[in-house]
């Protein structure tokens, strides 16, 4: 990149980031002084801000690099993590969110305290805080910084060696992202996420369009014809046993991993807990599911295009997306793209930071004060906690450079320590009334010990795919809790206490839209399968019949919904 182009990129990036910051500041002045204002955006988030924040919280640099790299090196099978997440958003909208909002919960451990006891609450906080502080927050910051280094060759531009450039990038990204979380609270995070989300959608559409035009020698149609007729197996999402995501895993452990992420993970669900009404929350969650359907098109098709442009000869699969961006994205969009990329990194980082501070302030500090802490005190403690966690992540994130091959393994291992027991405890807690706190405590201890032994001691003996392992542990742990409820039931049945602070009228179109969303999941898998695009002959009669059946079923569901609401 020439000095003139570099200056233009830097200035335009600063302009777009400053614009987002200014709008966020205008929309959040005076709203983060109270507990609900700081942690839950005053329980006033509408559907637009919820879906925007969910989108950017979930999508970051590792998806841009990793998913496109997987499509370049293998096929579309890794879209399972993204597309099937839409099913979990349906569960969140229709099952979990009504309970959370009716109980006016601010954190998930607060619900566990209400359902079980303070010990279960503390145990869950320890799991979350260790996972966030030691692994998730530093790894998001590290992976985002690496993405910026790869895409814009920061060492060459600055004249620094790789590691000093990495440290500089980590600090620059971390400080900017922390400003939103520390000073603005959840509302600032949600607004900036929404604005950056619009930019991500624009870039997500433009990159494959420019890529197909480049592939087709200036013709979008010719480029599209190439990826659908040459090496069509690259468009296959029905993963085999040796693919990154075997197809069978979406029916086992992936269900529970997605339920954890979208229905019980504090840093994701916190923006839905701030919904101004149940209807707005349901709209935001369900529409975020539709954006997950778009991920294969925006974040995997470019990897397939890169394969057709460069062949299998790149150094690593993670070079596919950065190389494509450098080759096809016009210079006049480079600053905008950098601003969007940084916005995606900021989103995941500041959302994690905000949620970790929320957990500390409300589930550690507040109980230690016997519930006597004022709103101003809790907000002050949360800001201090955010600052400490951010500074800690600045130290840990660059150190991940010295074990790059172990980074993703580390994330996978530590997430596995708390995702399954959390979703087990929440589901059993919601749908039973006699299972005691003892069951939740046993499950947490059993899972941490068993999972640790399987991953570190018996990993050569137990070779079951880790996603299938999630499912096995899930059902064993559900059995443990139900057995405790049968052998040592609560003396008094637990009763859900309603404390709603927002309108709890469900959105009348939530269920028919959920049917349409599920149909889109099925249709996407049909499209990227041997019945659809992953065939030399292209989509055949069977594909057309199945898609027609989905359309007819949806017309029937929406027709009934229209008659009921008339």
Can you summarize this structure?
The chain has 23 helices and no strands.
Q: pLDDT under 50 segments (min length 5)?
A: none
Average pLDDT figure: 84
Reported for the largest beta sheet, the result is: none
Element string (H = helix, E = strand): HHHHHHHHHHHHHHHHHHHHHHH
Radius of gyration from CA coordinates: 23 Å
Describe this structure in words.
With 566 residues, this protein is mostly helical. It contains 23 helices and no strands. Helix 8 crosses helix 16 (320-328) and helix 12 crosses helix 21. The longest helix is centred in the N-terminal third of the chain and has 54 residues, at 162-215. The model has no long low-confidence stretch (mean pLDDT 84).
Give keywords.
mainly alpha
Write the layout of secondary structure elements.
Layout (H helix, E strand, L loop, with lengths): L2 H26 L6 H6 L6 H12 L2 H13 L6 H4 L1 H18 L5 H8 L2 H35 L1 H5 L3 H54 L4 H10 L23 H12 L1 H8 L4 H22 L1 H10 L9 H9 L5 H35 L6 H25 L4 H28 L5 H20 L9 H22 L22 H18 L13 H25 L1
Helix pairs in contact: 1-10, 1-17, 3-10, 3-13, 3-14, 3-17, 4-15, 6-12, 6-14, 6-22, 7-8, 8-10, 8-16, 8-17, 8-18, 8-19, 8-20, 10-11, 10-14, 10-15, 10-17, 10-18, 12-19, 12-21, 13-17, 14-22, 15-16, 17-18, 19-20, 19-21, 20-21, 22-23
């Amino acid at each position: 990149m020439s000095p003139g182009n570099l200056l233009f990129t830097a200035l335009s990036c600063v302009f777009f980031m400053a614009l987002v910051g200014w709008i966020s500041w205008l929309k959040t002045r005076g709203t983060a002084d109270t507990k609900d204002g700081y942690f839950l955006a005053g329980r006033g988030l509408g559907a637009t801000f919820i879906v925007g924040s969910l989108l950017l919280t979930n999508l970051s640099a590792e998806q841009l690099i990793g998913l496109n790299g997987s499509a370049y090196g293998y096929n579309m099978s890794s879209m399972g993590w993204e597309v099937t997440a839409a099913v979990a958003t349906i569960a969140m909208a229709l099952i979990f969110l009504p309970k959370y909002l009716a109980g006016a919960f601010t954190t998930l451990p607060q619900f566990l305290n209400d359902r079980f006891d303070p010990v279960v609450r503390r145990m869950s906080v320890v799991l979350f805080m260790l996972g966030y502080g030691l692994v998730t927050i530093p790894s998001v910051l590290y992976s985002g910084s690496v993405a910026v280094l790869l895409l814009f060759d920061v060492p060459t531009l600055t004249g620094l060696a790789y590691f000093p450039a990495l440290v500089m990038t980590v600090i620059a990204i971390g400080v900017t992202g922390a400003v939103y979380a520390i000073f603005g609270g959840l509302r600032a995070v949600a607004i900036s996420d929404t604005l950056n989300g619009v930019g991500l959608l624009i870039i997500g559409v433009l990159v494959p369009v420019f890529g197909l035009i480049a592939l087709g020698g200036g013709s979008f149609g010719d480029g599209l014809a190439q990826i659908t007729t040459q090496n069509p197996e690259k468009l296959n999402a029905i993963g085999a046993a040796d693919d990154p995501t075997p197809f069978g895993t979406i029916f086992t452990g992936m269900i529970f991993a997605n339920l954890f992420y979208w229905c019980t993970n504090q840093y994701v669900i916190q923006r839905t807990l701030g919904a101004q009404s149940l209807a707005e929350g349901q709209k935001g969650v369900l529409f975020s599911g539709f954006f997950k359907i778009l991920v294969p098109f925006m974040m995997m098709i470019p990897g397939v295009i890169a394969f057709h442009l460069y062949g299998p000869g790149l150094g690593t699969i993670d070079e596919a997306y950065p190389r494509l961006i450098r080759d096809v994205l016009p210079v006049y969009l480079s600053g905008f793209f950098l601003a969007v990329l940084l916005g995606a990194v900021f989103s995941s980082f500041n959302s994690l930071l905000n949620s970790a501070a929320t957990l500390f302030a409300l589930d550690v500090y507040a109980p230690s004060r016997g519930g006597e802490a004022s709103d101003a005190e809790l907000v002050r403690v949360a800001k201090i906690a955010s600052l400490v966690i951010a500074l800690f992540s600045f130290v840990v994130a660059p150190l991940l450079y010295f074990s790059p091959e172990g980074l993703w393994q580390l994330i996978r291992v530590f997430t596995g320590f708390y995702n399954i027991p959390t979703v087990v405890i929440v589901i059993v807690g919601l749908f039973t009334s006699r299972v005691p706190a003892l069951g939740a405590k046993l499950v947490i201890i059993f899972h941490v010990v068993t999972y640790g032994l399987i991953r570190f001691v018996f990993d050569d003996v137990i070779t079951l795919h880790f996603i299938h392992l999630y499912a096995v542990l899930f059902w064993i742990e559900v059995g443990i809790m139900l057995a405790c409820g049968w052998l040592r039931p609560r003396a008094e049945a637990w009763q859900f206490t309603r404390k709603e602070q927002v309108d709890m009228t469900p959105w009348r179109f939530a269920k028919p839209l959920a049917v349409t969303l599920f149909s889109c999941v099925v249709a996407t898998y049909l499209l990227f399968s041997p019945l659809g695009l992953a065939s030399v002959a292209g989509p055949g009669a069977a594909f057309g019949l199945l898609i027609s059946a989905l359309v007819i079923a949806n017309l029937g569901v929406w027709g009934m919904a229209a008659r009921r609401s008339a």
